[in-house]
Amino acid sequence: MEGGGIPPYREIEPAAISGPDTPDPARRTASFLTLHDAAMDRTLAGKTAVITGAGSGIGRATVLRFLTAGASVVAVDRRPDLAEALAADVPAGSRDRLAAVVGDIATEDPAREFTRVALDRFGGLDILINNAGISVVKPLHEHTPEEWDSVMNTNVKGIYWSARHVVPVMIARGGGLILNTGSISGEAGIPGQGAYAASKGAIHQMTRQMAIEYAPHKIRVNAVGCGTVDTPLVRWSAEKSGDPDAFWKMLREGHPIGRIASPEEVADFYVYLAGDAASFFTGAILMLDGGYTAR
Ligand SMILES: NC(=O)c1ccc[n+]([C@@H]2O[C@H](COP(=O)([O-])OP(=O)(O)OC[C@H]3O[C@@H](n4cnc5c(N)ncnc54)[C@H](O)[C@@H]3O)[C@@H](O)[C@H]2O)c1
User: Fold this and answer.
1) I want to staple 9 with a disulfide (CB 3.0 to 4.6 A). Which of 83, 117, 202, 278 is the partner?
2) Mean of the pLDDT values across residues 54-58?
């Protein structure tokens, strides 16, 4: 095993394991129905994608939609229980197109490992979605140095580690697509977003920089600047807020469209961006935000 510390990929068996931020059964059923409805979609047949932060929220929904659209997927998450819960929701017919790598993307080893797994298991690597991210919700001056480093190392340095291993492969293959999960916090000032805002602003600028740098190699790089998405991350924040009803109201009213997004809406947009119909996009920060940044 190269690098040490990260286990080699393994086939992940269905398991009824759940964790504190595992989506509840009702939400799982909903995504399963979405898969069923979309059963004829083969937009991404033959493509291999690596998706980080795959165990929950946006990443999880995107893995399921990519599999439905015919892609092979290397799902990356630091939590093995979430990777196993994800596998339990994958229809039997897609399981041979899913591999999992468990590791912390703030370190280099997972990037080395997921690149190797994509090549060894599926014979290529066409799409990388840098989606894993964390936040600390408090004023900047109250961040501890450890919280600052943790957010920046996961959200920003994780993309650097990915690039270090994936870009040479994409150059050798004659092209590829990198999609980064950005945020309204990368564009607008929002209280309590300290390190998170800095990290998402950095991601947006890295997206532009990488798009220009790698355009000659036919590697396209885009970011999706999400507004609030109904994921375990946000549900956790609502519970911690002390007044969940007021919190949800504040989130809805913050978006001119009057609601927040579902993870499946983001996943559908990623499928579109990964398909041939979106082939002229590069260096774009695509705001999927219900009008938040249009104000
Ligand atoms: N939910 C929102 O409202 C929202 C809005 C804008 C942007 N985003 C971004 O979307 C992305 C996904 O967020 P989400 O809401 O789905 O969150 P989530 O917490 O539901 O899922 C994130 C997943 O990433 C994994 N992860 C976190 N740190 C990791 C690390 N260091 N290594 C490997 N895996 C790691 C977690 O285990 C989890 O499974 C993040 O980049 C987030 O900043 C979310």
Assistant:
1) 117
2) 97
